[in-house]
């Protein structure tokens, strides 16, 4: 597994302190990697937020992104008229080290039948928005897996499959890097089950 220094070399990550070093990091092929890290610290093109339909800010990763970006981000969000569950909208990133924030609204978990198409929609729309806006690198948090209660293993499966499908399409060729950025070790384990199958290590 290439070390995290690969990501640094490609300016994917910008650690401010040694204790910020992501761990563990797994690079599965040249396009897809898995890190355990604070998504607000990634120096990449687009960071995805796990937002709510009102795009009005909140706790979890949304709170962390809003805090790090500064109050201008919430002001821009307020002009967007909210966002449907299963979709996403894009804004500037203000004080964040990334260039754009993509606010995806995941489902509040109900059943796999009801929720999976919506969760997959978040990934699909976020990836499309990234490409439409000239972003080549994108990081996803574990959308819906916090207060929205989506089971981690099922969410990882849906996320990996949707990214796989997108990268196979012609527009997917315009992306250089998709990072699954998890906060907890348990979430990382779920991704480790599916990523090596869909994206065999190079
Ligand atoms: N970097 C990466 N991942 C993080 C970070 C971080 N800094 N902080 C938390 N996580 P949640 P949801 C992970 O609850 O379930 C908000 O109030 C966390 O461990 O943030 O989609 C919104 O405004 C978890 O795995 O999002 C909505 O109202 C994942 O991010 C609602 O929560 C998502 O957890 C959305 O709920």
Describe this structure in words.
- The chain is of the alpha/beta class and 202 residues long.
- The chain contains six helices and seven strands, in the order H-E-E-E-H-H-E-E-H-E-H-E-H.
- A seven-stranded mixed β-sheet has the order 1-2-7-6-3-5-4, with helices on both faces.
- Mean pLDDT is 89; it is low at 8-22.
- The structure holds ligand AR6.
- Ligand AR6 binds next to strand 3 and helix 2.
| Percentage of residues in strands | 15-25%
Biggest sheet descriptor: 7 strands, mixed
Number of strands: 7
Instruction: Give unreliable regions as ranges.
Output: 8-22
Mean pLDDT metric: 89
User: What is the gyration radius calculated from CA atoms?
Assistant: 15 Å
Number of helices: 6
Bound small molecules, by name, code or SMILES, are: ligand AR6
| Termini separation | 9 Å
């Amino acid at each position: 597994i290439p070390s995290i220094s690969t990501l640094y070399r490609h300016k994917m990550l910008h650690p401010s302190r040694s204790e910020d070093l992501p761990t563990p990091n797994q690079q599965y092929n040249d396009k897809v990697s898995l890190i355990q890290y604070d998504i607000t610290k990634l120096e990449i093109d687009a960071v995805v937020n796990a937002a709510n339909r009102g795009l009005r800010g909140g706790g979890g990763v949304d709170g962390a992104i809003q805090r790090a970006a500064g109050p201008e981000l919430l002001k821009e969000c307020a002009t967007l008229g909210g966002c449907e569950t299963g979709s996403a909208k894009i804004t500037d990133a203000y004080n964040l080290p990334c260039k754009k924030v993509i606010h995806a609204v995941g489902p509040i978990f109900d059943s796999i039948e009801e929720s999976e198409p919506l969760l997959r929609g978040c990934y699909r729309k976020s990836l499309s928005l990234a490409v439409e806006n000239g972003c080549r690198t994108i990081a996803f948090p574990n959308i819906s897996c916090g207060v929205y209660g989506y089971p981690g293993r099922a969410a990882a499966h849906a996320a990996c499959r949707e990214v796989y499908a997108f990268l196979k399409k012609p527009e997917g060729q315009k992306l250089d890097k998709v990072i699954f950025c998890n906060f907890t070790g348990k979430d990382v384990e779920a991704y480790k089950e599916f990523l090596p199958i869909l994206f065999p290590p190079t």
